[in-house]
Amino acid sequence: MLAQKVSTRGASVSARPVAIRAHNGRKQVSVVARAFTAGMGVFGTKAGMMSFFTPAGLCVPATVIALEGGNIVTQVKTVDTDGYNAVQIGYKVVAERKVKKPELGHLAKSGAPPMKILREFKLKDRAVVESYTPGQQLDVSELFKEGMPVDIAGLTVGKGFQGGWRRGGVPTRPTLPQQQVSCPVRHQHRLAPAGRTLLGGRCEDGSDTAVCVLILKIDLARSAIIIKGTVPGKAGCVVEVMPAKFVGKNC
Questions:
Q1: pLDDT for 73-124, tens place per residue?
Q2: Full-model pTM
Q3: Which of 50, 91, 168, 242 has fewest C-beta within 10 Å?
Q4: Pairwise CA distance, residues 156 & 208, whole Å
């Protein structure tokens, strides 16, 4: 992934700042470009979990991902026009008043309805990118098959509020020297890395990816995908479903 410095004003949804550093009295935002994906994916909404019975009679935990209105191609980017190959899609159709006017103009070019989420899948193969056209409705049955491994990315719920020691990654008591076992909270700066202060707060909430999980069933009648196991996020969170990456094969 390439890191570049851009302004946060007017930044697209796919470019998110990861760090803010001060240099010569000015703040600079470092943005990490989106990584390549193994193939085209779709967006869905985590509906909840259930028990799924396989044809062999085995009961396994499963997650239901609902496919709401959207998954429409809004823009096709190539090396000639944008410097990289990607397909931008929209998800979650909403009322027109809930979308900003610049985004409405962008969606109007492809003939797509107002949608809340606009993100892109960055691909290496230009031929695959050019096979999509703006305004095209993605077909889940063509992109995924039952039993296929996929990667699912979403926002985790985290661990909630945690104390400074756990949130800062301080070792537990058996691994600490004897003089640091009874270290009070006001002296925690001795154990913290340079330039850091161990304070309590929300812990481990952010983006996460469930790697190489299997698709148990694709229910087109109910517009849902059933995934084996758990996926990041709580019920109602938007997740990305994309083909699984295998080092040396497709990435």
A1: 999 998 888 888 899 999 999 999 998 999 999 999 988 999 988 988 998 8
A2: 0.72
A3: 50
A4: 6
CB 137 within 8 A of CB 90: no
The answer to whether 227 and 215 are in contact (CB under 8 A) is yes
Phi then psi for 250, rounded to 5 degrees?
-130, 10
CA dihedral 166, 167, 168, 169 (to 10 degrees): 50
243: its two tokens = 């083909």
- The pair of structure tokens assigned to 212 is 């190489």
Structure tokens at 220: 């087109």
Q: Quote the CA–CA distance of 89 and 21 in Å, as a whole number.
A: 32
Closest-CA residue to 67 (of 248, 240, 246): 240
Tokens describing residue 119 = 């993100």
Q: Taking a C-beta distance cutoff of 8 angstroms, is the pair 227, 147 a contact?
A: no
The span from the CA of 41 to the CA of 236, in Å, is 19
Taking the chain, what is the end-to-end CA distance rounded to the nearest angstrom? Answer: 13
Q: Residue type for 230, please?
A: T
